[in-house]
Amino acid sequence: MSQSEPLVLIVSGPSGSGKSTLVQKILELPGTMLAVSSTTRAPRATESNGKWYNFVSEAQFREMVARGDFLEYAQVFGKNWYGTPRAALDEALAKRKDLVLEIDVQGAKQVKQKLPGSVAIFVIPPSREDLERRIRERGQDSEDEIRRRLDRARDEMLNYSSYDFAVVNDDLDRAGREVQAIALGSRCRVHRMEDRIREILKSFGG
């Protein structure tokens, strides 16, 4: 593998686990960019199109699926669709940046199958009680929705063994340092460094 190929970092975790905040920590590293997902859900009051999500109609989303535009896509809670456009990978390659994907367990499995060299990080809340508190503090969900999110969190966490790394988000500063360390360490994998190593070997006559 050439060092010029983008490192793909997958970040998943239950809703309310703090994965978006940890994605921001990774994006503080030079040479990283976020893959902006497409979704059929309505934007929240604080969200603008094109920053974290591109908001599209269901008809538009289905057209994108039919064209093969997505690296991965999935339906969440049986209603809204989310997908990562393949174009994000091309953009990362052109800009020579590493690509960060914030996606769910279903999407992570799809990306891992297509891009075996990608690095998957699972963000884990310290307890069910802590996760419920975080979800309630957001004030966005009904009781039924909170229950569904907690049930889904358990199901998602049962998939932890399919990830390369796990970060327990009980201390944001420490968890932030850990995800940054994972990103930096992943850049130094031998198979990613081969081109550079060969160039250096030439100076030794090798």
Secondary structure elements and their pairing?
Layout: E1 8-12, H1 19-27, E2 32-34, E3 37-39, E4 53-55, H2 58-67, E5 70-76, E6 80-85, H3 87-95, E7 98-102, H4 105-114, E8 119-124, H5 128-138, H6 143-157, E9 165-168, H7 172-187, H8 190-202
Parallel strand pairs: 1-7, 1-8, 2-7, 3-4, 8-9
Antiparallel strand pairs: 3-6, 5-6
Helix pairs in contact: 1-7
Q: Explain this structure to me?
A:
The chain has a five-stranded parallel β-sheet, sandwiched between helices. Helix 1 crosses helix 7. Strand 5 (70-76) and strand 6 (80-85) form a beta hairpin. 45% of the residues lie in helices and 20% in strands. The chain is α/β, with parallel strands linked by helices and 206 residues long. It contains eight helices and nine strands. It has a domain at 8-35 and 97-202: P-loop containing nucleotide triphosphate hydrolases (Rossmann fold). It starts with 7 loop residues before the first strand and ends with a helix.
Write a concise synopsis of the structure shown.
The chain is of the alpha/beta class. The protein is built from eight helices and nine strands. It has a domain at 8-35 and 97-202: Rossmann fold.
